[in-house]
Amino acid sequence: MFTTLSFGEVLWDVFPDYKKPGGSPANLAYHLHCLGNKSVLLSRVGDDTNGEELIDFLKTKGLSTDHIQTDKKLSTGRVTVNIDEHNEPSYTIHQPSAWDNITTENVSPELVRSLDAICFASLSQRNQVSAESLKILLSSTPTDCLKVFDLNLRPPFIDRELILDLINQSDVIKVNEDEFSKIGEWLETQNPAEEILKNDPSKIIILTLGASGSAMYTSEGYFNQPAYPISGEGDFVGVGDAFLACFTHLVLNEEKHDRILKLANRYAAYVASEKGGMPDIPSNILGKMKSEDSG
């Protein structure tokens, strides 16, 4: 069992007809938990009904809430979600929110020293308090702790210098096609993955391709894998988080590169078929993540 920490927002995704618990780091922490890891979520909610409901929900899912802080002034985070005709979600992120003020006050040095992976995203650092807290954590983790960075670019919360600095600090970097292009603009290249690997061949760059699957750039080469079919009437929210959680789990378990994308795509396809970013994961799906035969 590996110990992982996901840093950032836990909030309510508010759809036109319903609401679901969400937040990229919270989704990631949930799926790492489902996959059998000791998963810690470091976040913050308001002292309000929405915060109480989120904590109760996480407890019912078996995820520890020991590191969910309560803010006496700021309210629990909310995101309004709209789905377009291509099943792509767009987000209105309300601010300020409690997760803008995440501190390290309830994080012990022993926990930080025990981490096998720390996962974080760009959005959760839009406020200086949370950004400084992550900086402290990243500087304190063991040298062999896997640093996993998700570029969830959400205008207007885009800080070029911060993002490029986090890319330099990270071992695994996940981007979608738009984010890949944006990083390319900043680095003045059509293929930012090649530029990043040139500076540090140990990194892994993951490119999610929506309905076309996913790809991975490493020093060993370029790998790609088509998406698995999706069944049901899911809302596609949190699919990338589920993919990254499974990817991180498989990297920690030293799975072969040519199998990681296939297994992570399979896991993400199930989540895409469900509503919300934290659906129950049936045992047959979890079993496939351990099977030697992923066909």
The outline comes out as globular
Helix content: 25-40%
Low-confidence stretches: 291-295
| CATH hierarchy, class | Alpha Beta
CATH topology: UDP-N-acetylmuramoyl-L-alanine:D-glutamate ligase
> Please, what is the CATH homologous superfamily?
Ribokinase
Radius of gyration: 18 Å
SSE topology string:
EEEHEHEEEHEHEHEHHEEEHHH
- What is the total domain count? 1
Structural class estimated from helices and strands: alpha/beta
- Number of E-type strands: 13
Q: What is the count of DSSP helices, taking H or I runs of 4+ residues?
A: 10
Distance between the termini: 25 Å
Q: Main sheet: which strands, in order across?
A: 5-4-1-8-9-10-11-12-13
CATH architecture: 3-Layer(aba) Sandwich
Nearest-integer average pLDDT: 93
Strand content: 15-25%
Q: How is the biggest beta sheet arranged?
A: 9 strands, mixed
Question: Can you put this structure into words, describing what you see?
Answer:
This protein is an alpha/beta fold. The chain has one domain (3-288): 3-Layer(aba) Sandwich (UDP-N-acetylmuramoyl-L-alanine:D-glutamate ligase). Helices cover 36% and strands 23% of the residues. It contains ten helices and 13 strands. It has helices spanning 24-34, 49-60, 109-114, 128-140, 160-169, 177-187, 192-199, 239-252, 257-272, 283-288, and strands spanning 3-7, 11-14, 19-22, 38-46, 68-71, 77-83, 89-93, 117-121, 146-150, 172-176, 204-208, 214-218, 221-225. It has a nine-stranded mixed beta sheet, with helices on both faces. Strands 3-2-6-7 form a four-stranded mixed beta sheet. β9, α5 (160-169) and β10 (172-176) form a beta-alpha-beta unit. The longest helix is centred in the C-terminal third of the chain and has 16 residues, at 257-272. It starts with a strand and ends in a 7-residue tail after the last helix. Residues 291-295 have low confidence and may be disordered.
